[in-house]
Design goal:
heterodimer, A: mainly beta, 11 strands
């Protein structure tokens, strides 16, 4: 119940395409859903995050769509560029008075954007 | 510049030796975390600490130990009891009450 399942494992798109990465969770206590971007040999960097009270959030070319009833959320990258080639992780954090800030991560998606 | 530093970037050890990975932050963050990353897998939580002199086990704590003697420092020791220590280790921190976790650049540990 603590898992976050991410798909696809890898994704190849042409420049300008819109890659979509999906995540699903089971624990309804999750209330914070961030996406991280990681380049090879580097630490993950926070990209964008959403809470369940909204269904969509945009920051630049990155959009999170959130479906609370389906317990799914996804990342869309508009007008993708070769520089977006990286590994993307979704994550979730449970709420509660004992919230420790622990993040549960998906397995990651390796994105390649071809020129 | 504020941030999280991890050292060294690469570390090589012989099997049976303990090794300590450094993590320092100057963000004045309260909570700190250690994650392990293996190829093709997500990040898995090893240990975390919300305040000085207190820490809790994460999902894969066996074979690891930590200390939190100072707010800005959270070193991780990989002991000889860890059966498969070769991995990429990431340290993160966050301010208490906030959700955003910030990661360091990582240490790649290779044990042969």
């Amino acid at each position: 119940q603590q898992q976050v399942k991410q798909s696809p494992q890898s994704l190849i798109v042409q420049k300008g395409g819109i890659p979509i990465i999906n995540c699903a969770y089971e624990n309804t206590a999750f209330d914070y859903f961030p996406w991280y971007q990681q380049f090879p040999g580097k630490g993950p960097a926070l990209l964008i995050a959403i809470r369940p009270d909204v269904s969509e959030k945009k920051e630049g070319r990155f959009t999170i769509s959130f479906n609370k009833s389906a317990k799914q959320f996804s990342l869309h990258i508009m007008d993708s560029q070769p520089g977006d080639s990286a590994t993307y992780f979704c994550a979730a954090s449970p709420l509660g008075s004992g919230n420790t800030g622990k993040l549960i991560f998906g397995q990651g998606t390796t994105l390649q954007v071809k020129p | 510049d504020g941030g999280i530093t991890q050292s060294p970037k690469y570390l090589f050890r012989k099997e049976g030796q303990n090794v300590t990975l450094s993590c320092e932050q100057n963000l004045n963050h309260d909570a700190m975390y250690w994650y392990r990353q293996d190829p093709g897998q997500g990040l898995r939580l090893i240990y975390y600490s919300q305040i000085v002199n207190d820490f809790q086990k994460g999902d894969i704590a066996e074979g690891y130990s930590v200390s939190r003697e100072k707010k800005e420092s959270f070193p991780l020791t990989v002991t000889s009891a860890q059966k498969n220590p070769t991995a990429f280790y990431l340290c993160a921190s966050t301010r208490q009450g906030l959700d955003e976790q910030y990661f360091g650049p990582g240490t790649r540990l290779t044990v042969t």
